[in-house]
Amino acid sequence: MGFTVVSPGHGGTSEDYSAFRVEYADRLLLRKANKELISAFVERWQPETNTFHLPFGEMSISLEDVSFLLKIPVTGKVVEVENFARYTEESRSGAIKMVSNLLGVSVEEAEEEVNIARGSQSAKHWLKSRWCPKAGSRPRNYPPVECTARAYLLYLLSCTLFADKSGSRVSIALLKLLEDLDDVGNYAWGAVALAYLYRHLGSATRVLVSRIAGYLTLLEGWVYDHFKLGLATPNAKYLDYVHPRVSRWIQKHETVANVDKLGAIRRTLDRLRPSEVTWDPYVNLRENGVVQAMAFYSGKIKYMDVVEPYHPERILRQFGHVQSIPDPPYRPLEAHRGPFAKKYSVKYGFKQDNWERWRNHVLAPEVRGEKAVFEFLATPEYLPWFVKVSHPVITNPSFEDLVMVASTIADNEILERNRQRWTRRCDGWTSPQRCLRLTRRGPL
User: DSSP states of 313-370 as a string?
Assistant: First the structure.
């Protein structure tokens, strides 16, 4: 996926954009996600660390993953727009003016759309019908090519990186970022999309939340690259160094969620050994450069008013290093993780200077540790520490066959002690009640 835009003087016309490639964006909507696969990994997400907790330790979607999977920049300007966080008269009038000027529509049409959306969101069907009309219904006064390009990019972003739960709305605030089309490529779209996905993964872990937002194609592509679950077919047309890596797989989608399939994925992950994971799928593709260095950035990433911690020290095995016990995660300034999505509110501090000077905030060599001879290696202290602070399995061990957590802690006494502890309580972050509900929960 990319953000190449044809500008006037380069052969582009408004007629070229009227095709809009809507069929491409539409294929990436939420309804196409593999519900069972997403559910199985959401259950293992810990929002305090922004990592998936598996039987042998932590894994997560890194900035390097995003760069390889989507081929979009992970460095650059932060995506933020002032005065759009709340619906006020100021934000309303600003939105009307922006929609009219940047999309080339009348003030009346812009006002009608903004009033319906209450200042912050617009409907995708309005963009689709207005800029991609059916054959024979194209308006005579077609908007300028720049306006049509912005409409297309706004539609594309809302279908991919910033998809919401409805699958039908567009954030008008994003339009502000498309004002200067020559500047679109200077934003850190990869880091921004990752922050957005992190936040919605955290929200989806709440027991009364049944839907998830974010670019789920990114999440699925990450799973297919790291885990051999037999849920995707290799794409014979894929070419390394040419296509985004996410197109390496052809997803198998079902129209109806299957609870039995979800249970099967849960049990597979519960029994998974570290040697069965592809920790570093880019080992033969990686080149020394900005992306590899940026993957070790330790700090916060941001999208609008959403700030999320990024902890590469917790997933060192994904970069070919021996995993050691990490430092405690960042503490939020304020956190309310209620059972509903509307009750989920987490605020972290963010320093713009730290992001702009990210090279000063990468992991030191001593923190990265040694290069791993075998990519799944961890220090002897790591796994015993991990099982003390986490809940490595989802299936309740008292109702299932004994789950082998990892071959490195196969001592029967340790396994039995931890099995009893997992039966008594869930983990250090969530309640025992939620632990019990996890096994009863259906697909998203």
Answer: GG-GGGGTB-B-PPPPPPPPSEEEE-SSGGGEEEE----HHHHHTGGGGBPPHHHH-P
